[in-house]
């Protein structure tokens, strides 16, 4: 956890239990990186506020994510683990950085448009012309508003990263646009003031490309709002049932046929969870048309359970030990605050907020 190692930072919003998308896009990488890098992993409760309005659920979910982090093997002696709102310096940095962020570039962010659509109760079909959503946001009545917090979500995310001077940010594919904005904001700030204050961070990937874990419902990604998640704490019976229900097709009709999306998705999950031998076995079976999807699903369910069972088995003990959880967070916040306070002091000075 000491100096001269490159800093890694990442966070997860406490909006519910962790699922396989979170695991393969983020947490699984955190576990490896804590062995080699100066890691800081947090629970993005302020970001959750942009969509979550139930205070009790938010509080419960913060504890839940922390317990799942620890149950998965994040080690507070190796990595700093903290809650975003325990680092108040981030909120001031967010205010300061927002002075250099354009409303237009925020409005064009894909995740903002998606969430704005939801907030306004619109279907994607309602605004096939991409400009329409912007008009709808501006024209929305105040009781169906899109919050300024949602709009400035990427500024806060950039601040999380830049405050810690992080070089690497392990995230899934869906966060790449946010990361690109972070780089742009860092560059812009440095250029505007003629300084080298911020590092331009990059995604950290052990594989060739950013991970997108698909859902098992045939298309798209696994996600809470998609309602298609396999959770790390799913009981074996429920988990097997979800996998066995995965959408498939009528099977390959000729040797070496191209795969339909639902089948390609099953193979993507198999590649993440199984050994290369197993993947090859089923790929060969697909190619020569001998594949039985039921067998593939059974294998997939067992391989997923190999990853999730140890986590599920530990999580309740950790949840029961609030004193331990508090200690972990206090220690993590102290470290994260020290770095954030240093960055904030520098940024204030650079921007001209100086004592007389
Ligand atoms: P969040 O909470 O939506 O997701 C947490 C992490 O899980 C990854 N992920 C996936 N990866 C692959 N396939 C999927 N289906 C999938 N679903 C989720 C996400 O890519 C992410 O890495 N904005 C962030 C939280 C955040 C953050 C940060 C991350 C706030 N500040 C600073 C890194 C650095 C988010 O909403 O993630």
Give the structure's gist in a few sentences.
This protein is mainly alpha-helical.
Provide an overview of this structure.
By secondary structure, this protein is mainly alpha-helical. Helices cover 55% and strands 6% of the residues. Strands 1-2-3 form a 3-stranded parallel β-sheet. Strand 4, helix 10 and strand 5 (202-203) form a beta-alpha-beta unit. The longest helix is centred in the last third of the chain and has 30 residues, at 322-351. The protein is globular. The two termini are 37 Å apart. The structure holds tryptophanyl-5'AMP (TYM).
H-E order: EHEHHEHHHHHHEHEHHHHH
Mean pLDDT: 94
Counting H and I runs of at least 4 residues, what is the number of helices? 15
Strand count: 5
Q: Give the termini separation.
A: 37 Å
**Main sheet: strands, sense, barrel:** 3 strands, parallel
Give the low-pLDDT segments.
none
Structural class: mainly alpha
């Amino acid at each position: 956890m000491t100096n001269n190692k490159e800093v890694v930072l990442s966070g997860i919003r406490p909006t519910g239990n962790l699922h396989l998308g979170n695991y393969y896009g983020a947490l699984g990488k955190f576990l490896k990186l804590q062995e080699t890098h100066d890691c800081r992993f947090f629970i993005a409760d302020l970001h959750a506020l942009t969509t979550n309005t139930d205070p009790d659920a938010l509080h419960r979910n913060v504890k839940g994510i922390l317990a799942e982090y620890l149950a998965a093997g994040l080690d507070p002696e190796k990595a700093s683990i903290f809650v975003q709102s325990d680092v108040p310096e981030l909120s001031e940095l967010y205010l300061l950085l927002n002075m250099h962020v354009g409303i237009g570039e925020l409005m064009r962010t894909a995740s903002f448009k998606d969430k704005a659509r939801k907030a306004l109760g619109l279907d994607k079909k309602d605004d096939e012309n991409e400009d329409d959503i912007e008009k709808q946001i501006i024209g929305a009545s105040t009781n169906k508003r899109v919050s300024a917090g949602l709009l400035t979500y990427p500024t806060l995310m950039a601040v999380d990263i830049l405050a810690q001077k992080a070089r690497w940010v392990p995230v899934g594919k869906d966060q790449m646009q946010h990361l690109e904005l972070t780089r742009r904001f860092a560059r812009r700030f440095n250029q505007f003031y003629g300084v080298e204050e911020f590092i331009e961070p990059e995604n950290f990937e052990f594989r060739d490309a950013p991970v997108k874990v698909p859902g098992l419902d045939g298309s798209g990604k696994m996600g809470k709002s998609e309602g298609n998640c396999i959770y790390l704490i799913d009981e074996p019976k429920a988990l097997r049932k979800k996998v066995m229900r995965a959408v498939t097709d009528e099977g390959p009709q000729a040797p070496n046929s191209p795969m339909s999306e639902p089948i390609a998705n099953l193979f993507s999950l198999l590649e993440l969870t199984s050994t290369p031998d197993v993947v090859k076995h089923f790929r060969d079976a697909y190619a020569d048309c001998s594949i039985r999807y039921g067998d593939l699903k059974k294998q997939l369910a067992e391989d997923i359970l190999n990853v999730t069972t140890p986590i599920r088995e530990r999580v309740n003990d950790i949840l029961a030990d609030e004193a331990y959880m508090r200690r972990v967070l206090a220690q993590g916040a102290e470290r994260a605050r020290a770095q954030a306070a240093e960055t904030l002091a520098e940024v204030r000075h650079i921007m001209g907020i100086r004592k007389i």
